[in-house]
């Protein structure tokens, strides 16, 4: 039996339920932007931008999708896609370039403020604190939550935003980057996540142990893969290793 030395965690839908957070963040930061820009323009005796939440929001989405096609290596770098899309939209709507850059950046600050308002599962902090006494811990996410501002940041001295290193999971790079920073061999590490394709398979193929958080009970599991329904069951897997 190998000695487990490190555990890496997916974040969204693993340590908290992400349902609702993205929808609130998506709507909230864009509504904030439209209102803030119009207020700013009114104070300067300038006309409103004429962007509506519905049409502007659709255009914002289409610009992100188009950019991801044109610059495929950035497809998982959601903060970059959003910033560039907003800058272009605001500039085309009539803002000077410097104002467009400033307001796009301010909108993304609001985005990150809303995006970190996740509610970790009540067991998560206690579990991570206990695990940290025995294992090195890391976070590996495809999402663009602010890694230093998310509520469980203190437990993850190593945290990888896979999209920002241009290698979203299932690319093995973020896993190898985490293992290298932890200085741990794959067979001495475990990854925990809710996605079969983005968490479980790439980790298992690298030789890591993998824990799949899923309600699916009838799927056969390859070697080194364990299934639990909720993060709070992780200790029972570790006991049996
Ligand atoms: Mg996830």
TrEMBL record:
UniProt keyword annotations, A-Z: Hydrolase, Magnesium
InterPro entries with a match to the protein in the record: HAD-like_hydrolase, HAD-like_sf, HAD-SF_hydro_IA, HAD_sf
Transmembrane segments: none
Heme among keywords: no
UniProt-listed GO biological process terms: riboflavin biosynthetic process
MF (Gene Ontology): hydrolase activity
Domain of life from the UniProt record: Bacteria
Cofactor annotation: Mg(2+)
Protein name: Haloacid dehalogenase
Native organism: Halomonas campaniensis
């Amino acid at each position: 039996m190998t000695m487990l030395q490190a555990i890496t965690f997916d974040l969204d839908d693993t340590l908290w339920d992400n349902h609702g957070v993205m929808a609130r963040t998506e709507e909230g930061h864009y509504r904030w932007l439209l209102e803030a820009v119009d207020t700013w323009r009114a104070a300067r005796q300038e006309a409103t931008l004429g962007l509506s939440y519905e049409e502007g929001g659709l255009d914002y989405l289409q610009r992100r999708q188009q950019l991801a096609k044109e610059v495929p290596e950035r497809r998982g770098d959601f903060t970059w896609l959003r910033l560039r899309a907003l800058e272009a939209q605001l500039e085309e709507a009539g803002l000077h370039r410097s104002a467009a850059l400033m307001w796009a950046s301010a909108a993304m600050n609001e985005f990150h403020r809303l995006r970190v308002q996740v509610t970790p599962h009540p067991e998560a902090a206690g579990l991570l604190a206990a695990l940290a006494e025995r294992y090195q811990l890391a976070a590996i996410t495809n999402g663009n939550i602010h890694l230093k501002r998310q509520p469980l940041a203190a437990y993850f001295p190593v945290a990888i935003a896979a999209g920002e290193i241009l290698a979203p999971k299932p690319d093995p790079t973020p896993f190898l980057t985490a293992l290298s920073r932890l200085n741990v061999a794959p067979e001495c590490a475990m990854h925990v996540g809710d996605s079969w394709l983005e968490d479980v398979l790439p980790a298992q193929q690298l030789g890591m142990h993998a824990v799949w958080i899923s309600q699916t009970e009838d799927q056969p599991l390859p070697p080194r893969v364990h299934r639990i329904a909720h993060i709070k069951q992780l200790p029972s897997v570790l006991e049996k290793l």
